[in-house]
Amino acid sequence: MTPAPGRLGEVARLFLKLGVIGFGGPAAHIALMREEVVRRRRWVSDERFLDLVGMANLIPGPTSTELSIYLGYVRAGWPGLLVGGICFIGPAVVIVLALAWLYVRYGTTPAVTSALYGITPVIIAIVAHAMWGLGRTAVKGPVSVLVGLGALVLALAGVNVLLLLVAGGVVVMLLQARAPRAVGLVAALTALGGAGAASGQTAAGGVPVTLGTLFLTFLKIGAVLYGSGYVLLAFLRDDLVERLGWLTDRQLLDAIAVGQFTPGPVFTTATFIGYVLAGSVGALLATVAIFLPSFVFVAASRPLLPRLRRSRWAGAFLDGVNVAAVALMAAVTWQLARAAIVDGFTVALLILSGAALLAARVNSAWLIVGGAAAGLGYRLAGWGG
User: Fold this and answer.
1) N or C: which terminus of the chain carries fewer CB neighbours within 10 A?
2) 78 Rama class: left (phi>0) / alpha (psi -120 to 50) / beta
3) CB atoms within 10 A of CB 26
4) pLDDT tens digits for 345-365?
5) Per-residue model confidence (pLDDT) at position 201
């Protein structure tokens, strides 16, 4: 695929911007990408966008980063595949590196709670708005409604994300396409997910920090990890605290906090840990290792999407995955909202942001900047505690 002149620059500018303003985790990133590539720029339709989200959910690694890689390819071919992912990751890596330097030098992380106090209600509104649009595309009848509701309930109950996505695809496929042959595919995918989840269970302790072991540890995590930043925390603790003894629990929690409150993918936690353990070289190796599998998986799975849509049963499976993915976004939004909407000020920001998105179609980047300014002003005035 050869990109048209200027398209690579479009990809670079868009994903650099999203990497700078992309607070709120994968659900928020997906919402921001949908607004930019579906609503504003019309690079893809909502249906195509959902297909790409479904594929990104079905392969290991950070979903929003893999979506940026897919979208970069759609717009600008193979160069776009690389540029989209690198530009989305890059701003977070730079910010996390600066914070890691401050952490190592001063023993603490800088406070950004006032800005996030205003940003998080805005993020909730953006995600909810995106869910509404994606849900209208994903829901194609009573079956998909029931699948979505079931996936939502099970997600809130803590059921494994991959199992919910696969189960959603299976139910819709069997009921709509009536294709028993798919059972073998489902079993293979489920086994793959189980193998990935189990692969981190080895025993050791007190291993010296070496660059080779650092690289291979993060490469393994990037290659087998499904799910949210909380799943990443479990993998990191198992390897770096329990198995290798490189970090304390306190250091790991500090690293996760940095990944959560900086923009871009939470997997840049690896950048922070790499710097703490082995300086700039360690940060570079850990970052490359944890994100490299995503580029490989996207490049390998990219040709499958058109074939899936041409197949009746595979298309129905992907429809089920899509509606389950929207349900998972809803579950994440509910969990985020419980922590973000804490008083009258945050309720007001949520309502105003939602109204702006519905009525004025305002660019979400301005909403995020406005939310940060409002949070800082409110706290500086002494009203927010």
Assistant:
1) C
2) alpha
3) 27
4) 889 999 998 888 888 767 676
5) 43
First CA to last CA distance, the chain: 54
Predicted pLDDT of residue 231: 62
CB 319 within 8 A of CB 137: no
Structure tokens belonging to residue 234: 């479990």
Q: What is the pLDDT of residues 183-240, one digit of tens each?
A: 444 444 443 444 344 444 444 456 788 999 999 999 998 987 765 555 677 678 878 9
CA angle 111, 88, 71 (to 5 degrees): 145
User: What DSSP element (H or E) covers 47?
Assistant: helix 46-58
- The amino acid at residue 249 is D
What gap in Å lies between CA 270 and CA 259, rounded to an integer? 9
How many residues belong to the chain?
Answer: 385
Q: Which tokens in the block code for residue 224?
A: 């087998």
DSSP state of 56: H
Q: Give tens-digit pLDDT for 259-286.
A: 766 888 889 999 999 999 999 999 999 9
Nearest by Cα to 221 from 229, 208, 101, 159: 229
Domain range annotation of the chain: 7-197+298-380
